[in-house]
Specification:
Length: 364
């Protein structure tokens, strides 16, 4: 168990200069279609000309629902070009948590990487695209299980693994980039939800503009981000799954949202936003949804474009299922989620059978 650190006071936030161009920026080059990805093409808005790559690949928290829903908001309302990539089964259907993915060459021209993955061991050629992005200091937005994004035992990418023991990159990508690796659950997942408490000294941070009343279904994680992190919010564990449930007074309030920067191999630095929460159901909470939208702008250095009333309305039907291992909707291809109006995801698609729920309950 790590020793909790004292949460540092916020450092002054250096505001990046942002101005809307008088003419439309050049669009990123078009990539050929790939079965692992869909693209939401933004047009007008402060994000025009910026390309975001979102990778969904966790086993439990329904990132295959969360990320396309977030991507549509960012594209339709704010003008970003958003590429969402999914892990697949051998038949080309979305299979959360599999390592079968392609199309990561989109990272070559990406302005931001958004991750919601867990214990991945991607094919070498795909992993190299991600490594190249990190090596150039691209900004990263990490959600939930991305603190333990990779589980790679051998080979050239082993140092990115969540439990890497080498002194050159201790605890891998999670700790070195996002600021924490897997430590453990805090409270009882599926029985205790959380209330996010913004720290008073961070009230003026751009990511918290317009953010209030954040309640999330995903359970707490232990997390002790390093001294170079600015903690924006602490998590209050509740004795129940509703926003009005009483706090669990046996639990401390631990960091659940923070920002930091990491230094890339080329000497540049990349902005990072990390949230240890982020099930697809959490996106139903307007405060949490606004925080992720604001964080997207901030990691890109576009905090001057963040206003308390940025449009965060869903685009098209959003039908998140209660998170659980193996509880994803079957028979869905990424292409089924294309466009603005297709459901994410159709409630007509079946989820796993009831006998597999108990089997996954003890898996972190």
């Amino acid at each position: 168990m790590k020793t909790p650190i004292r949460v540092r006071l916020a450092k002054p936030v250096a505001l990046a200069t942002f101005a809307l161009a008088s003419c439309a920026p050049a669009a990123p080059p078009e990539l050929p279609a790939h079965p692992s990805r869909i693209v939401y093409e933004g047009t007008a808005g402060p994000g025009a000309g910026k390309q975001l790559v979102l990778i969904a690949g966790d086993h439990e928290y329904r990132s295959e629902e969360l990320l396309p829903a977030l991507g549509r908001i960012l594209a339709k309302h704010h003008g970003f070009k958003v590429t969402v990539l999914f892990t697949l089964d051998s038949a080309g259907f979305i299979k959360p948590g599999s390592s079968n993915i392609g199309g990561l060459e989109a990272l070559k021209t990406a302005d931001l990487l958004v991750l919601a993955i867990r214990f991945q061991d991607f094919p070498a050629a795909e992993m190299q695209h991600l490594v190249d992005y990190i090596d150039r200091g691209g900004p990263v937005l990490g959600i939930r299980t991305s603190t333990h994004a990779f589980n790679i035992k051998t080979g050239p990418y082993a140092k990115y693994s969540w439990d890497y023991k080498g002194e050159d990159y201790p605890s891998g990508f999670g700790e070195q980039v996002l600021g924490e690796t897997w430590v453990g659950h805090y409270g009882t997942n599926h029985e205790q939800s959380s209330r996010l408490l913004p720290r008073a000294e961070q009230a003026s941070h751009p990511i918290l503009r317009g953010v209030s009343d954040v309640h999330v279904q995903s359970g707490g994680y232990q997390a002790y981000p390093p001294e170079d992190s600015d903690v924006l919010a602490l998590g209050q564990i509740l004795n129940g799954m509703t926003a009005n449930a009483a706090p669990d007074t046996s639990k401390d309030e631990l960091p659940v949202v923070w920002t930091r920067s990491y230094r890339a191999t080329n000497g540049s630095t990349g902005r990072v936003f990390t949230s240890t929460h982020g099930a697809s159901e959490d996106l139903l909470n307007p405060g949490f949804r606004r925080m992720l939208v604001n964080a997207t702008f901030w990691t890109l250095g576009m905090e001057n474009a963040i206003t308390p009333d940025l449009n965060i309305e869903f685009v098209g039907p959003f039908n998140p299922v209660t998170f659980s291992f193996d509880g994803y909707r079957r028979g869905v291809r990424p292409s089924d989620l294309a466009g603005w109006d297709s459901p994410i995801i159709s409630p007509d698609k079946p989820t796993r059978d009831s006998t597999s729920q108990a089997a996954g309950a003890a898996i972190k």
